[in-house]
C-alpha cells in the first residue's frame, strides 16, 4: 500500500515538475516546433477540410530530422508524453453519467459487447498475422473505443519500445483514415438497410472510431440521429478508463513497464479523466468553461500527434508492412457486422 502511495506521489511530482517554468523554458524549442506544425495542420484542415490529427502527423513526419536535435528533443518528448496525458485527462469533460444512463439498457449492452469483443478480436487478429499482443490490444482498443485518442491513451501504459511507438502512429493514421471513410460510407449503409433514425444513431455511434466523424455522419442523416450517435459514442469513450486500467494492470503484473514499485496502479491521467467526467456530471463545470476545456484537450492531442510524427520516419512506418493495416480493417469490419447483428436481434 505504501509503495502505491509513493508511486502516486512520485508520479504527481513528475507531472507537475514538467509544467515548472524552468522545465518549460528548456522544452520551449521543441514545443514551438510542435505548435507550428499543429497550426499548419489546423489551417489546412479548416481551409480545405480533412482530419486535423492526420495532417499534424504527416507534417510532423516531414520534420523527423529534428528529432535528435539536442535543443528540440526535450520539448518534443514533453509534447508526446505530458501533453498527451493532459489531453486524454481533459477528454472526461465531454462525458456525463446522465448521457450514458439516458441511452437505456439495450444500447449500453451493445456498446459493452462491441468494445470488449473488438479488443479481444484485436488480439486474435494479431496472433493470426504473427504480430505481438501489444499491437492487438492497441489496434483493437483504438477501433473499439475512440480511435486516435484511445490509441494514444493505451500506448501511454504499454511497454515503451520503438516498435510500439511506430505501431501507435500507424494505428492513428489507420483509424483516422477509416473514420473519415466511414463518415461517408456508413450513412449509405443506413440508407440501404432502411434503419430508422434512432437505430441509425446507435449504429453510427457504436461503429465509427473518432468522435468528430460520428457527429458528422449522424447529422448528415438527421438532428435526432446526430444526437443519439453522439451519446452512444460518448458511452464508448467512457469505456476508455476501465480498458486502460485493465491493460495497465496486465503489463504491470507481467513486469514489462519498468519498476513496478514506482509505477502507479492506475495511470494518473485516468484519474484526471474520471474527475473531469464526475465534475461535468454534477454540473461543476460552467458551460463556457466546458467548451474551453474541450478545445484545450483537442489542442493537446494535436500537439502530441505532431511531436510523435517528428519522432518517427516514413521508413520506420513502412517497415511495419501490410499486416497492421489488415488488422485495423479486420477489426473495423468485425465491429460493424457485430453491431448490425445485435441491432437486428434487439429490434
From TrEMBL:
This is Sulfate exporter family transporter. The chain crosses the membrane at residues 33-66, 103-125, 137-157, 169-189, 201-222, 234-252, 264-285, 325-343. InterPro entries: UPF0324_pro. Pfam families: Cons_hypoth698. Keywords: Cell membrane, Membrane, Transmembrane, Transmembrane helix. Its main location: membrane. It is a multi-pass membrane protein. It is found in: Cell membrane. Belongs to the UPF0324 family.
Amino acid at each position: 500500500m505504501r509503495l502505491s502511495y509513493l508511486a502516486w506521489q512520485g508520479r504527481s511530482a513528475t507531472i507537475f515538475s514538467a509544467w515548472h517554468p524552468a522545465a518549460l523554458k528548456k522544452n520551449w524549442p521543441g514545443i514551438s516546433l510542435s505548435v507550428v506544425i499543429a497550426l499548419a495542420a489546423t489551417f489546412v484542415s479548416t481551409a480545405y477540410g480533412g482530419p486535423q490529427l492526420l495532417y499534424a502527423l504527416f507534417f510532423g513526419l516531414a520534420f523527423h530530422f529534428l528529432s535528435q536535435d539536442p535543443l528540440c528533443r526535450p520539448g518534443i518528448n514533453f509534447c508526446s508524453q505530458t501533453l498527451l496525458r493532459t489531453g486524454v485527462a481533459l477528454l472526461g469533460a465531454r462525458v456525463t453519467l446522465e448521457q450514458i444512463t439516458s441511452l437505456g439498457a439495450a444500447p449500453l449492452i451493445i456498446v459493452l459487447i462491441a468494445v470488449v469483443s473488438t479488443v479481444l478480436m484485436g488480439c486474435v487478429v494479431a496472433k493470426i498475422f504473427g504480430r505481438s499482443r501489444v499491437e492487438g490490444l492497441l489496434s483493437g482498443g483504438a477501433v473499439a473505443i475512440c480511435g486516435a485518442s484511445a490509441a494514444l491513451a493505451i500506448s501511454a501504459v504499454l511497454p515503451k519500445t520503438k516498435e510500439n511507438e511506430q505501431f501507435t502512429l500507424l494505428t492513428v493514421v489507420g483509424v483516422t483514415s477509416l473514420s473519415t471513410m466511414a463518415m461517408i460510407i456508413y450513412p449509405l449503409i443506413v440508407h440501404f438497410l432502411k434503419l430508422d433514425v434512432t437505430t441509425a444513431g446507435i449504429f453510427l455511434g457504436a461503429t465509427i472510431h473518432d468522435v468528430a466523424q460520428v457527429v458528422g455522419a449522424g447529422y448528415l442523416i438527421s438532428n435526432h440521429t446526430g444526437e443519439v450517435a453522439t451519446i452512444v459514442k460518448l458511452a464508448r469513450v467512457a469505456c476508455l478508463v476501465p480498458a486502460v486500467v485493465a491493460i495497465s494492470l496486465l503489463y504491470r503484473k507481467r513486469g514489462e513497464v519498468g519498476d513496478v514499485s514506482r509505477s502507479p496502479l492506475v495511470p494518473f491521467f485516468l484519474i484526471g479523466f474520471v474527475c473531469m467526467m464526475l465534475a461535468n456530471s454534477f454540473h461543476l463545470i460552467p458551460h463556457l468553461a466546458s467548451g474551453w476545456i474541450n478545445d484545450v484537450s483537442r489542442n493537446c492531442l494535436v500537439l502530441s500527434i505532431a511531436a510523435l510524427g517528428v519522432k518517427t520516419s516514413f521508413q520506420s512506418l513502412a517497415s511495419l508492412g501490410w499486416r497492421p493495416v489488415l488488422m485495423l480493417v479486420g477489426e473495423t469490419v468485425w465491429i460493424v457486422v457485430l453491431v448490425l447483428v445485435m441491432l437486428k436481434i434487439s429490434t
